[in-house]
């Protein structure tokens, strides 16, 4: 769908909200939605390992600006605030987050989006870094998504299992329930290009609908993160256009 077919932009409302996740626990979240007449697709935006930082909220507002209702849940809400500058703590928290809990919490996010009066009922999901992995995980364990975008999600292969992540995402691909867009950097170590190739092989084997883009050159992990040295403008701009085109195609 071209940008000409998107609803006319008339401003947005962005606010902190909460919704019920696993076991009825309430999660903090950030919701950004377009104002004006019409109906809009919903997008679940899953944060990186650093949690619900301002950069993620900016991305939610970017989606609202382009005619999507975006919600980004704080998947670490139960553990309380974290220090994004303490990398060891960030990694420990990410690795201890239960896949089962994530799936249940994201189902709650679907319900929250569909409760917005202007939502058209179609839901997409996108995540970066650990959020990319969680996006594919969720897309393989729900029937409530219409499109998913994985931005350099790592830890998808069997030799990276933990008690919190007992099954490799790559082994769940036969259950993928919606089209998948994947955006990756050639210099990334997790997922390395070899891991991306294995994931693509499984998608082909399972006859799933997908689009992958591997950005070459000096492009590694975190190239969308314009607040970090890993940011790369050219692939980030191209990636955003691919994301909007993909969601326009499958959600409107």
| CATH fold-level topology | Rossmann fold
| Class based on secondary structure composition and strand pairing | alpha/beta
The gyration radius over C-alpha positions equals 17 Å
Q: Please trace the helix and strand order, writing H or E for each element.
A: EEEHEHHEHEEHEH
Number of discrete domains: 1
Keywords: Hydrolase
InterPro entries: AB_hydrolase_fold, Dienelactn_hydro, Dienelactone_hydrolase-like
GO molecular function: hydrolase activity
Domain Dienelactone hydrolase: 27-250
3D architecture notes:
Pfam families: DLH. This protein has helices at 54-65, 87-96, 99-114, 130-139, 193-205, 233-251; strands at residues 12-20, 26-34, 40-46, 69-73, 119-128, 147-151, 180-185, 210-215. By secondary structure, the chain is of the alpha/beta class. The protein has one domain (3-251): Alpha/Beta hydrolase fold, catalytic domain (Rossmann fold, 3-Layer(aba) Sandwich). It has an eight-stranded mixed beta sheet, with helices on both faces. The model has no long low-confidence stretch (mean pLDDT 94).
Question: What keyword list fits this structure?
Answer:
252 residues; alpha/beta; Rossmann fold; eight-stranded mixed beta sheet; 6 helices; 23% strand; globular
């Amino acid at each position: 769908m071209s940008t000409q077919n998107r609803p006319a932009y008339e401003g947005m409302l962005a606010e902190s909200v909460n919704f019920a996740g696993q076991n009825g626990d309430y999660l903090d979240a950030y919701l950004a939605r377009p104002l004006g007449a019409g109906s809009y697709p919903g997008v679940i935006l899953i944060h990186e390992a650093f949690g619900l930082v301002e950069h993620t909220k900016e991305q939610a507002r970017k989606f609202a600006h382009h005619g999507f209702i975006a919600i980004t849940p704080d998947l670490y809400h139960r553990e309380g605030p974290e220090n994004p500058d303490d990398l060891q703590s960030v990694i420990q928290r990410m690795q201890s987050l239960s896949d089962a809990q994530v799936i249940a919490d994201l189902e709650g996010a679907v319900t929250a989006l569909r409760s917005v009066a202007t939502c058209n009922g179609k839901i997409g999901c996108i995540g970066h870094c650990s959020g990319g992995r969680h996006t594919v995980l969720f897309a393989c364990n729900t029937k409530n998504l219409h499109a998913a975008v994985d931005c350099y999600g790592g830890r998808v292969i069997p030799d990276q299992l933990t008690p919190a992540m007992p099954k490799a995402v790559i082994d769940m691909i036969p259950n993928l329930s919606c089209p998948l867009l994947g955006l990756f950097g050639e210099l990334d170590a997790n997922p390395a290009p070899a891991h991306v190739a294995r994931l693509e092989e499984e998608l082909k084997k399972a006859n799933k609908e997908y689009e992958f883009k591997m950005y070459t050159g000096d492009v590694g992990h975190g190239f969308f993160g314009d607040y970090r040295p890993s940011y790369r403008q050219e692939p980030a701009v191209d990636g955003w256009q691919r994301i909007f085109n993909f969601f326009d195609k499958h959600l409107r």
